[in-house]
Amino acid sequence: MTMTSISVESMEGKLFLSGQWVGVDNTYDLFNAEKNSLITRIASARESHVLAAIRNGKAGAEVAAAMPVHERMRILHGAADVVENNRHVYIDAIVSEGCKTRREATKEVNRCIQTLRLSAEEARRINGETIAFDQMPGSEGRVGYYYRFPVGLIVAITPFNDPLNLVAHKIGPAVASGNAIIVKPAPATPLSALLLAEAFAQAGLPDGVLSVLPGFPEDMGDHLITHDDVRMISFTGGLNSGKALMQKAGLKKMSMELGASSPALVLDDAELGPAVEAIVSGAFWAAGQNCLGVQRVYVHRARYGEFLNTLVDRTRSLRVGSKQSEETDVGPMISLSEAERVESWVNEALANGARLLCGGERNGAFYLPTILEKVPDNCRLAREEIFGPVVMVEPFDSLDEAIDKANGVNFGLHAGVFTQDINKAFSAIRRLEVGGVMINDSSDYRIDAMPFGGVKHSGIGREGVKFSIQEMTETKVVCFKTSGF
């Protein structure tokens, strides 16, 4: 593989269309929200580009399906090598366009490399099983098996909060399983996705297998969602957008991660120091713009006062500042409008009787890490995903009460439970209505190899490399009727 250096400047005003960089006249300005400074001009796809990507992607899916496993693995490892050898470019892009600090961006780049390498490893493990057809009377003399085959052309729609690794979680499993894929990144953070496309181009991914189309839905039309040649949609984003997408899409495979309002349960026997550290990290990582972020904290009444004092002190110690600084703990939100939205939600809760313990202040796109208690149930903050640096704290008297409170919203992605009692831990595991329970960790804990997804309004299906591959493949049964053995 011949590797060349990667630069943001070389992608200005270009789409990655079916494996080729294509300059277009339609562009929009990409800004750094912290500095309100121009980063670059981003190509904005139109309907003609979408239709070309679908047409070429249908043909690319046949190429991808015919690619031997060792070739898929070589390409995935090659793309990981490109990211690793240009990590400073990827880190700079995430910091410039997104909401993450330099330390957070560095972690995301490291995870992206791991996700691509995991995808390469899982490519060799897409296996089926033999089937004992003669278990049914009258089926003697039949032998067979099932295997998994790619669905074809996939459309992936990704959000702004993990602009590189979430895209890797779409492209990596798609390539590993022999599919073609079109990525529609969030308009606020397209650079990371375009840079990842260049990594795959340098790794030798055949033309037609991958397109990355930045832009706005009103300019692109509904073809990515409705076109019959699109066989699967992998969507990560908001609940309302996910519902609207499902209503339009028709008969297609769907994988959806739609957000959360994740709880943390702190029981009376919990180690408070580690619990506070985990909850603060889980609540305020990426300025709270994290689907796994802690939003609701329920603390046993016997430990409530002690816990609250420690939580507030630790939150106040967080360093809020420039994304570029290695010393910063919490940077700005993705945009001024998002910071203003969070401010309005907090003000609504305060006007209805909530008590502010720390934070509650906005400065431009920055919103201080905020802790509230006594938030009324009728406030948006109590019912919906805040997607910002705000947590609510509330006491409970029994595990039954805590679990009822945790289950009392329409989301169910992850939950954290802090306890030293294994019986209580297993009771919570069984009864919490979520896709993952983290014992003595916050809801924010995740590795890229585990199944990831939720129940209720938190989504459909599971991600995580191995599990995404299962979603991106179908089973085919093969049965031979013989004359006997």
Q: Which characteristics define this entry?
A:
Ald_DH/histidinol_DH, 16 helices, Ald_DH_N, Aldehyde Dehydrogenase, Chain A, domain 1, seven-stranded mixed beta sheet, oxidoreductase, single chain, Aldehyde Dehydrogenase, Chain A, domain 2, 24 strands, 485 residues
Describe, in plain words, how this protein is organized in 3D.
Keywords: Oxidoreductase. InterPro entries: Ald_DH/histidinol_DH, Ald_DH_C, Ald_DH_N, Aldehyde_DH_dom, ALDH-related_metabolic_enz. Belongs to the aldehyde dehydrogenase family. Residues 26-478 form the Aldehyde dehydrogenase domain. It holds the Pfam family Aldedh. By secondary structure, this protein is α/β, with parallel strands linked by helices. It folds into two domains: 9-258 and 460-476, Aldehyde Dehydrogenase, Chain A, domain 1, CATH 3.40.605.10; 262-447, Aldehyde Dehydrogenase, Chain A, domain 2, CATH 3.40.309. It is 38% helix and 23% strand. The chain has 16 helices and 24 strands. The chain has a seven-stranded mixed sheet, sandwiched between helices. Strand 1 (14-17) and strand 2 form a beta hairpin. The longest helix has 22 residues, at 102-123.
CATH superfamily of the largest domain: Aldehyde Dehydrogenase, Chain A, domain 1
What is the arithmetic mean of pLDDT? 96
Question: Oligomeric status of the shown chains?
Answer: single chain
Number of strands: 24
SS-derived structural category: alpha/beta
Overall 3D shape: globular
Distance between the termini: 50 Å
Second rung of CATH, namely the architecture of the largest domain: 3-Layer(aba) Sandwich
Radius of gyration: 24 Å
Give the class-level CATH name of the largest domain: Alpha Beta
Biggest pleated-sheet summary? 7 strands, mixed
Number of domains: 2
**Which strand-content bin applies to the residues?**
15-25%
